[in-house]
Amino acid sequence: MDLRSDLARVRAFPKAGLDTETLTNLEVVGSAYDIALQGLALPYGDVPVGSWRTAPYVVIQNVGTYLDMPRFMDANHKIESAQDADAYIERLQQMPAVLDGELAPIRDARGMGVPPPSFLLDKAMGQMEQTIASAGKGELFAETLRPKLANAGLAERYADRALALESGPIAEALSRQLEELRIERAVATSTPGISSRPRGEEFYAWALRSSTTTDLSADQIHRQGLEELEALHARMDPILREIGFTTGSVGERMQRLSEDPRYKFAEGDPGRAEIMDFIAERVEWIKAQMPRAFNTLVDPNLEVRRIPPAEEVGAPGAYGGAGSKDGTIPGRFWINLRTTDLHRKYDLADLTFHETIPGHVWEGEYSNRLPLIRSILAFNPFSEGWALYGEQLADELGAYDDFKVGRLGYLQSLAFRACRMVVDTGLHAKGWSRDRAVRFFVERNGSKRAEVESEVDRYCSWPGQATGYKLGHSRIVDQRERARTALGDAYDFKAFNDAVVLGGNAPMDVLERNVGRYIERAGR
């Protein structure tokens, strides 16, 4: 196997005398391949090589070609020449085989007693039915292809060919998947946790290692989440009191705050436009602050887009990521607008900083400058920990100095990620029900129920992934305090931020070694 032989080569490579960047590259590759090989030894699941999707289910409400391909073809497949259009059609021609290729692992997992939870299948079947209906009308591919062809001055016949493919063989393959999901549904239960399934405890132990790049147990992560949640609520309490919310738990008071009409967006399309304008203004503000936080600056190519409506019901409130390595595809902030009630004026700024600048899109610009293997490999606690650290940087740069309610939104965001550590381990290691998981968010953190129901469903389909966010953030903050203590007057805020982000997306142990190297250089 290539992964195994490459890992052996990395481990055997002489390390003496290597420069810091090369040493980091070897350490990162070694960690990614080691974790991936452990996952590939498991009998089921979608195993990433240095990424974030620890999915035991191949097709579900947020996993599968039926979701990935329409989004990719619309957002990422450029049409600038006849060659591009030919490639577009060739991809569509291959799609039925890819969809059919997902049937075997679905059946294999079901044969092992690992069907997805029934409530996830209900969502996935609804989305699949919508996707099939869209394919029949040419809305998946032909409709989005036509304006691209017109802009490139290319023949309409490519769109006609796309329509024939999606309404014919692609729709037929999607229908075969829908039938398979219906078979799954007939034998599924509502039990959400992976540990209740055959070899589930083993799968979850690996998923935690993959998602945190640590050896922490479910109990340790659960306990840390509870402790961090209490500490964050202690910071939120005085702000709530100051703005007049004095009675009840922090969660109860945040629930009342969320119902305050001053902080809601308008319903429907007017509110959607308001949200997009709000995001654009916050992006411009934070972009102007970056010279105060970094010595090495980037200029991200950034686009804000709505999550496709067919995907919204199974999607989180937002997600984002870097653009392509060659810069031709922008970094994107995907915002869920199925209802404007998912967002508030006190929490949308923080969400924007997380997904764009200094968060995912900003960090991705640095990773794209690294060697190809480093741009491909990504580690959940660094990616998400950095995005939360980006939220912290925005606060430290003054984002909420004149809007204290916005700081509540930021702190609630951190608390939300602490809740994730509790809820994910609760679902997959402690026998929690879906309803108990949702209620924990709503009651303890004051989260919006409409938002957290989809969140909890995501944890059920991606065991472990949700634990990496706050854990990664806390590790970065701990390393900053380590540098501050070790360097004293020689410590520099901008130099530390540079050291972390220029070191690239890395496992937590490699991050720690990178900071140690920075301390050694800065202390000379």
Task: Itemize the secondary structure elements and their pairings.
Layout lengths: L1 H11 L7 H21 L24 H11 L6 H20 L1 H9 L6 H19 L5 H11 L4 H31 L12 H13 L5 H25 L7 H9 L9 H22 L12 E5 L2 H4 L5 E4 L9 E5 L12 H8 L4 H8 L4 H5 L3 H17 L7 H26 L4 H12 L3 H13 L6 H20 L5 H10 L5 H15 L2
Parallel strand pairs: 1-3
Antiparallel strand pairs: 2-3
Helix pairs in contact: 1-2, 2-9, 3-4, 4-8, 5-8, 6-8, 7-8, 10-18, 11-19, 12-14, 14-17, 14-18, 17-21, 18-19, 18-21, 19-20, 21-23
Q: Which terms would index this structure?
A:
23 helices; mainly alpha; 524 residues; 3-stranded mixed beta sheet
Describe the protein in words:
- This protein is mostly helical and 524 residues long.
- 65% of the residues lie in helices and 3% in strands.
- The chain is built from 23 helices and 3 strands.
- The mean pLDDT is 94.
| Major β-sheet profile | 3 strands, mixed
How many whole angstroms does the radius of gyration measure? 23 Å
Count the helices. How many?
Answer: 23
Q: Beta-strand level of the residues, as a percent range?
A: under 5%
User: Which strand order does the major sheet show?
Assistant: 1-3-2
Shape: globular
Helices and strands, in order, run as: HHHHHHHHHHHHEHEEHHHHHHHHHH
* Helix and strand composition category: mainly alpha
Q: What integer is the average pLDDT?
A: 94
Give the helix level as a range of percent.
55-70%
Low-confidence stretches: none
Tally of strands: 3
User: In whole angstroms, how far apart are the ends?
Assistant: 44 Å
